[in-house]
Amino acid sequence: ARAAETMADDPGPPPSIQEVMDDLAMRFVVNCPAEEQESFERLLFQVEAAYWFYDDQYREIWPATFKTHNLLSFSQQLFKHCSLLSQFEDRAKEIYDAFTLYKHQIPTCGAILLNPSMTKVLLVQSYHGKAWGFPKGKIDKDEDKPACAAREVLEEIGYDCSALIDENEFLEMQWQQQVMRLYVVRGVSEDTEFVTRTKKEIGEIAWHKIKDLPTSKEDAQGKQKQFWMVAGFIARLHKWLEKQEKKKKQKKGSKQ
């Protein structure tokens, strides 16, 4: 997730673009751990972190001085200025495209947070759009899936669910080449105060009634279109809830 970082309270006059790129190259690329320099895919994650810092700090403090970039145009600029990357400047677009494909193949983990009555689910809305989704994110190198889910939830909504995750209670689906796993976390109070630890990633955090959410892309039309990203998981969640209700009735019957 996109971490919130800050610069000095009194930054003074804006630096030159050369100074900015030198700073970002040293912060995120040149001095990054050796294992992060073993492949372009790993290096581009560092470039992406540098891009977030540029957008969150330099652009926010001096918007009239520093131009808006997307990740591709920023990557091309950093390749030009960074001594470690400049020899590959003419391949920057090719390397970026390969990185984008690679990112879409990395498994993501997160959580489906349910209220105590299991009638509502917590969703997060994108900072830059209207789409709602579950708190989740890409798994880090050598990280196990429950740990990834807990980390992403903590970063995105400020809630530590690590002690509540049952590694056997999850829903999973595949979107193109990416596997998404969400652990079902029960009993989260609706009175919990959720505050994101990210910057420019999460716009809103809110509870939604499960019965009101679409269960297919066909249902996610009109006003429901903003929930198209969760529809597949909501369909699976309904089945999971039915299974829990059956278990509850069987357990109750065995006691009589």
From TrEMBL:
Residues 104-231 form the Nudix hydrolase domain. One of its GO terms (molecular function) is RNA binding. Keywords: Cytoplasm, Hydrolase, Manganese, Metal-binding, RNA-binding. Signal peptide: none annotated. The keyword Secreted does not apply. PROSITE patterns: NUDIX, NUDIX_BOX. It is found in: Cytoplasm. Belongs to the Nudix hydrolase family. DCP2 subfamily. This is Nudix hydrolase domain-containing protein. It comes from Prymnesium polylepis.
